[in-house]
Design goal:
Number of helices: 5
Helix content: 40-55%
Strand content: 5-15%
Shape: rod-shaped
Distance between the termini: 52 Å
Largest sheet: 3 strands, antiparallel
Radius of gyration: 27 Å
Number of domains: 2
Length: about 140
């Protein structure tokens, strides 16, 4: 699926070009890296209007800009949950030998899941359950 690119650079590219030109004229000596704020804006413009056009107009490294545009275009991973509620007041099952059975099922994106089934004393802390599961002691 290809996107149509505008043939003439938008005003945003011209404005960024002006800012970069001013920065280049004011820097003490050549060789200083272009500030990150310019790279961020150029990356956004490169994604929208094409890396070649933007890098040429701004006199920026084509390959560096292309790498940043590719990174920007990658699907972002959804952040992991910062808080998970575990209710311990739900009805508990008892195994045939009389032990309380605790089951936890954790789902991630796609078809990935982890199920923990524990018999014996109930661990009240999820991290304790997971740590115990990993160690085989809970």
């Amino acid at each position: 699926m290809s996107r149509r690119r505008k043939k003439t650079p938008p005003e945003a590219v011209s404005e960024l070009q002006r800012q970069i030109t001013e920065w280049r004229e004011r820097r003490p000596k050549p060789g200083y890296r272009i500030p990150e704020k310019f790279w961020i804006e150029a990356t956004r413009l490169g994604r929208d209007f094409g890396v070649s056009l933007v890098s040429r107009q701004l006199k920026m490294d084509y390959h560096g800009l292309k790498r940043r545009v590719i990174e920007l275009s990658k699907p972002q991973q959804s952040p992991s949950a910062g808080f998970v509620e575990v209710r311990m007041d739900s009805p508990q099952r008892v195994s045939p030998d009389g032990d309380v059975v605790t089951e936890i099922e954790i789902h991630k994106s796609g078809d990935t899941a982890m199920r923990i089934r524990q018999s014996g004393p109930v661990c009240k802390d999820l991290s304790e359950i997971v740590a115990g599961f990993m160690k085989g002691s809970c």
